[in-house]
Amino acid sequence: MKLSAFAKVAAIGGIAALTLTSCAANEGGSASDETAAASSLSGELVGAGASSQGSAQEVWVAGFQTANPDVTVNYEPSGSGAGRETFQKGASAFAGSDRAFKAEEISAGPFDGCATGDIVEFPAYISPIAVIFNVEGVDSLQLDASTVAKIFSGSITKWNDPAIADQNEGVDLPDTNITAVHRSDDSGTTGNFTEYLGAAAATDWTAGSIETWPTEYGGEGAQGTSGVVSAVKNGTGTIGYADASQAGDLGTVKIKVGEEYVEISPEAAAAIVDESPLEEGRTDHDLAIALDRTSTEAGVYPIVLVSYLIGCEKYEDAANAELVKSYFSYIVSEEGQSAAAESAGNAPISNDLRTKVQTAIDSIS
Prior knowledge:
This protein has 13 helices and 13 strands. The chain is elongated and about 65 Å long. Strands 1, 2, 3, 4, 5, 7, 8, 9, 10 and 13 form a 10-stranded mixed beta sheet that branches. Helix 1 crosses helix 3, helix 3 packs across helix 12 and helix 6 crosses helix 8. It has 365 residues and is of the alpha/beta class.
């Protein structure tokens, strides 16, 4: 089976909670002792939210605490919804979320830890979602959105169906039943995958963007990303979707974008974010992205999960403002993004996006 671009990345395990002390951080951080000695920051920074960021947060905490040994960062990967709620109640200084706050949610508020109703939010973690497969004798596969939608909705049931064969000339596709594996639990990965199908293949995928799989579409359900990967790997004629960092040595589908088939890669995943506009009606420092899942730009990979970091533009507690501003700056720095990519397999944000994000972070006070 073809080696995925992310095969060397360690799988992300479940994390009950993340609390790294400065002692633990000194074992794995990349900042120099001289930088650490020069830091004047101190205190405790509390964040909560998206578990998708779990492994990345672990690396970011370690690096930041190495450079700032008098700071303790606690990040609870309690889930995006819980993280947004915790932040709104002022129980955490920042949140991680697999979606930005909706405009109406911001208007309704309140944000108890913020001095105003304005928030700062920006993409910090871009995770490519791979369409993975395990078909005997097939090492490479390319599909358009319509065909992917028909496979996962149950309209295409055989691997040698003409819709698949016509896009894979020269590939010996077997007369084998397709087993489409989906998440059985509510999942942000499912939400992003189905958002792509709904946008790029609206005629063939009518369920829209959903986090709970429709029972009428059938298929085989599996718990969590690890469950989907295991089911695809141990099955016959299987196909599924999962964080690219956990695809291992399974085959990954090249997705048709415009007239080309794009192979999954960190660069292609980051490119779709750069090619997508900001959502309208947002404040200057609210960088919510309206992902263009139907982009035809060369070299973009449209099936991605974009996870945000969220903070106050102006904090009630000045100490929180200083720590959040510094921590966010480290996360989006080239060093922070590269460290997370090596450990968690995310796609680092581009230099252009980094410039916009840093301007938003600089507004925090």
